[in-house]
Target: 1-acyl-sn-glycerol-3-phosphate acyltransferase
Amino acid sequence: MPTSTSSGDPLSPRRPRASSEKTRPSLFWPLAAIVVPLMGLVFKVEIEGSEKLPRDGAFVLAPNHVSEIDPLVVALAVWRMGRAPRFMAKESLFRVPVLGWVLRHTGMVPVSRATSAAAARATLEASETLVRHGRGVIVYPEGSLTREPDLWPMRGKTGAVRLALAGGIPIIPMAQWGAQQVLPRYGKLKLWPLRRRVRVIVGDPVDVSAYADTATSQTALVAATDVVMADIAGLLSQLRGEPAPAVRWNPADHGQRETGRLEP
Model:
């Protein structure tokens, strides 16, 4: 029976056991002391399937992306589930004064924008670091806010699968729904009413073992990513109570850019 937790019930006996990385003193503690209560005013986060997020060890968490504010929801959910929320971040951000220091000291993972060979090497190094330190990382496989008109997951990029396959790390699908009520995609912030309901569901690890021997093949990586995106769409379908599109939205087929602000 799946367990569930709510950010409005921090003392619930069903809350998952915290991992050792969360119980150790770190920079996450003061950040959480500030951010978690503020987010609790804005969102009422309900989590289903929290037991499917590993309590210890490395993992790649792959959520859908419907709003500029949902990284805060995902981070809050991961913290509530007992793990420290770490994201992939552009490598250039690590060179920004102060911000770079925070990113490094919270264990965020840099994303290389260099040549394919350098990017592959950086992915392997990042994967080895996750395994060595037993850390998880949150990777939005879509790469940007979904372009799908009804906010279903669109076609994914291969970064999350590359990272998982490079280190034999479990890749966990997640779907979240409700954050777009507070900040619609490329819209204006709507803080009232407070504590809007946001539902989060965590799925079983995606079995991509069939692609492990061909992890350097772009065709195999795309196929594995399609499997991950199908699982994410299936979880979102459960939250929304309606079937997901059978085919993932491809921005290129509709004359859309895959990055940057979506034109109306």
Notes: The chain has one domain: 24-245. The longest strand covers residues 171-177.
